[in-house]
Amino acid sequence: MDSLHPDAADMSESDLHADDLSALAWVQEELRKSLDAAHKALHRALKDRQSAEQSDVDALDPAVLRTARQQVHQGVGALELAGLPAGAALLRASEALVQKFVNRPSALSADAVRDIERASFALLDYMSRRVAGKQVSAVALFPQYEALVARVGGTLPRPSDLWAQDWPALSLESTLAAPEDVAPRKADAETVEAFEAGLLS
């Protein structure tokens, strides 16, 4: 660490923040290249699918789709290392959808590819705003995330999948008492739905 930053002990918080933004900007550019390659591979697979006979669509060579999945997977790893778990979750949904295409080429469609591209563009826009120093919520990515998860199927997308918050530890003395005139709510599906509706609004 000292060999990289001889004056690390003297670095100000703004210097460290600038380093973080520089790293994020680098990841953003590398991610843009990976996602662009993935999109091109998906469009190539779309053309192959559309030119094939309907009866032979499941016999298409999935190598191009595997290439797209690999490019997206690399993006997931980069975002995890960059400390952007929400972005990684979004790309993980894209990766799962591409894997669905690998397993079943007949599921590939222009609309599905558009959903993947919209998610990629929303993610890159989110990162651009972060690099510019703007305070943006990762929950803004939820519409794109929801569309992808719905296509993958099997799980229910929730805004909390994209929202990570380290809450400060509270002592017993600082804990707020519940209002006496309010009945506590059960932690059931209705309460969760009401909470998430308020969060999204």
Written overview of the protein:
The protein has 201 residues and is mainly alpha-helical. It has helices at residues 13-51, 63-81, 85-103, 110-131, 142-152, 189-200.
Counting DSSP E segments of at least 2 residues, the number of strands comes to 0
Q: Biggest sheet: strands, sense, closure?
A: none
| Helix amount | 55-70%
Beta-strand percentage range: under 5%
Q: Which features characterize this protein?
A:
mainly alpha, 6 helices, single chain, disordered N terminus, 201 residues, 0% strand
What's the short version?
It is built from six helices and no strands. The protein is mainly α. The radius of gyration is 21 Å and the shape is globular.
Give the SSE map.
Blueprint: H1 13-51, H2 63-81, H3 85-103, H4 110-131, H5 142-152, H6 189-200
Helix pairs in contact: 1-2, 1-4, 2-3, 3-4, 3-5, 4-5
